[in-house]
Amino acid sequence: MTKRLVPSLAILILAILFYCGLVLAASPEFSADMIVTDAKGKVTTGKIYMKGTDKIRQEVKADGEVTVTILRLDKKVSWTLMPEKQYMEVAFPFDPNQPNPDFEYEMKTIGNETVNGYPCKIVEYVYKNKKYGVLVQWISDELGLAVKTQTKNSRGKVESTVEYKNIVAGKQPDDLFEIPAGYKKFSVFQLPF
User: Fold this and answer.
1) 2-186: CATH superfamily
2) Model confidence over 111-133: pLDDT tens digits?
């Protein structure tokens, strides 16, 4: 079970960094295919569903199984659903809707590029806390979200890339962002931040 949590927790951390580095003018609602590539070139695929900026569901395929992570930024919590009808809850150690000095950054637009058919401006966030490195996002004004996000370490090496393809804008069902009936809570450990 712990082996299955590793990719899910990595995506959770990416999502938190994504959220902390992005201030959206719009309130996107969509579903899309999600492709995550790590520093070694390993590709993990899945789906993402987003309702506004505070409800996100990620379904990640790894080792032949799907792990579901629901980020409820409005409740300051994430839930990871396991196939055994169990879920792990992780509370955020900070308010994701308030500025966090740990995630302060300098932002600048570094170019424009079309990604998956959407014209995007490329925005770079350099975190003041060097351990978080740099976040680069390809932001579509049309969609009100980043269709591609890349994290780099403090030396500029790409650590991960998250890209959304086959984006379908539109209302998402509320039950996608809730713990399904019959799931029981378990706890393995707390995230170290």
Assistant:
1) Lipoprotein localisation LolA/LolB/LppX (2.50.20.10)
2) 999 999 999 999 999 988 888 89
